[in-house]
Amino acid sequence: MSLKPQHYFLTTALVTYVKSKQLRQRHMNVVCAVEKKEIRYSTLASAKASVREQLLGEAGIAADMVKDITFLSFNYLGHMKPDEFYDSPEFPRGRTATH
C-alpha cells in the first residue's frame, strides 16, 4: 500500500448472483483508493474484484456465481494518506480496491 496521499471513494454496487438455484441481489460497499481523482476502467475492474472477494468472504458466493455487478455510486471521501483514512485502531484496515 502506498504511503502517498490517495483519493478515496466509497463505491456502492448492486450484485446479482445465484445461490441455491435462485437469482438474488445484494447491495455492497467497497472503498477505492486511487492516485488521481478520476474513476477509470482500471478502478472499475479493481472495484469489481473487491466486490467478488467480499461476497466470497461474507457469503461464500464464488465468482462464477456472480451474474452482474452494477455500480450505483462513487462517493468522494477525500484526499489523504492511508494513516489518515484508517485513523483508528477500532476500525481495522479492510480490503481497499486499488490499481
Describe this structure as you would to a colleague:
The protein contains two helices and four strands. It has helices at residues 41-59, 82-85; strands at 6-19, 22-34, 66-80, 96-98. The longest helix is centred in the middle third of the chain and has 19 residues, at 41-59. It starts with 5 loop residues before the first strand and ends with a strand.
Write down the secondary-structure element order: EEHEHE
Estimated helix fraction: 10-25%
Largest sheet: 4 strands, mixed
In round numbers, the mean pLDDT is 89
Shape: elongated
SS elements, strand count: 4
| Widest β-sheet, arrangement of strands | 3-1-2-4
For the structure shown, list the relevant keywords.
99 residues, alpha+beta, 4-stranded mixed β-sheet, 23% helix, 45% strand, elongated
What does the secondary structure layout of this molecule look like, with pairings?
Elements: E1 6-19, E2 22-34, H1 41-59, E3 66-80, H2 82-85, E4 96-98
Parallel strand pairs: 2-4
Antiparallel strand pairs: 1-2, 1-3
